[in-house]
Specification:
Elements (H helix, E strand, L loop, with lengths): L7 H4 L3 E5 L7 H11 L5 E5 L5 E2 L2 E2 L11 E6 L3 H10 L5 E6 L10 H17 L2 E3 L6 E3 L4 E3 L10 E8 L2 H13 L4 E6 L8 H10 L5 E6 L5 H14 L3 E5 L4 H7 L1
Parallel strand pairs: 1-2, 1-5, 5-6, 6-7, 10-11, 10-12, 12-13
Antiparallel strand pairs: 3-4, 8-9, 8-11
Length: 258
């Protein structure tokens, strides 16, 4: 039997730290705006050593200064800085985190691969889970955790469809199309390079969610076939269909995926 990661704190966080928070326009500000628009009920902690206050709230200089271990940290800083701030932390400051930046071996560069290996080792040692890196975040409509940097989601409503995509840009367009057609969503996730949590882990979480009736996936590649087959079998038993778009099957598709 395959082992799956417990992604409850990642997908339904009750507290969030925004690392790289800034009052300027950009992804942190957009995510903050979405959290306010959808009335996220958990605690939010901005983190940036360059500010004392942001958005009318205290801004913390580091993860170590947070008054609690947060369920989820969204980390929107350059790749080298991600490794630096995790190494500098004297405790495990979060239960899960999303790494938005690229630079973790996507192109096969040596330094990037070392950063990816660091994230994987950190996850194993600390018992935490990562979404990404090189992704656009995630959304849980039930917990109102709208951690996706697109402010065109105002009409999004809760429903029974959950999506995981290995392409962030494509998922944004797909979700807006769903919204325009009145299709409700329970979750959507951009899994990025999957240094830790992978496609089948998200699908497994969706399966266990009573409110999710249909699963969907945009797949460039499957890392662990056994896990995917196990999820597919469970979905069949539960009568929850999985709708899959698999790209990269043609020569042109392979080139595009790379």
């Amino acid at each position: 039997m395959a082992e799956f990661r417990d992604l409850s704190s990642l997908l339904d966080p009750q507290s969030i730290a925004i690392v790289g928070a800034s009052p300027k326009s950009g992804w942190p500000a957009r995510i903050w705006s979405n959290l306010q628009r959808f009335e996220y009920g958990g605690k939010i902690y901005p983190v940036n050593p360059n500010y004392e206050t942001i958005w009318g709230m205290r801004c913390y200089a580091s993860l170590d200064e947070l008054p609690e271990v947060v369920d989820h940290a969204i980390i929107i800083v350059p790749a080298a800085r991600v490794v630096e701030l995790l190494r500098q932390s004297h405790r495990t400051p979060f239960r899960s985190a999303t790494i938005y930046s690229g630079g973790f071996g996507e192109g096969g560069d040596t330094e990037g691969l070392k950063r990816k290996e660091f994230l994987q080792a950190y996850a194993r040692e600390k018992g935490v889970h990562f979404c990404g890196p090189n992704c656009m975040g995630l959304v849980s409509t039930r917990s109102r955790a709208i951690l996706f940097p697109d402010v065109r989601l105002s009409e999004m409503r809760e429903g029974g469809l959950a999506i995981v995509s290995q392409s962030g840009g494509l998922l944004g367009g797909l979700v807006r199309a769903m919204i325009s057609r009145g299709i409700g969503l329970s979750y959507f996730v951009t899994s990025g390079n999957e240094a830790d949590a992978e496609l089948s882990d998200y699908l497994q979480h969706f399966l266990k969610d009573e409110n999710t009736k249909v699963l969907a996936a945009f797949i460039e590649g499957i890392k662990d076939a056994e896990k995917f087959l196990q999820v597919a079998g469970e979905a069949l038993e539960r009568a929850k269909p999985i709708i899959v778009l698999k790209i990269g099957r043609s020569e042109e598709g392979v080139a595009a995926a790379l």
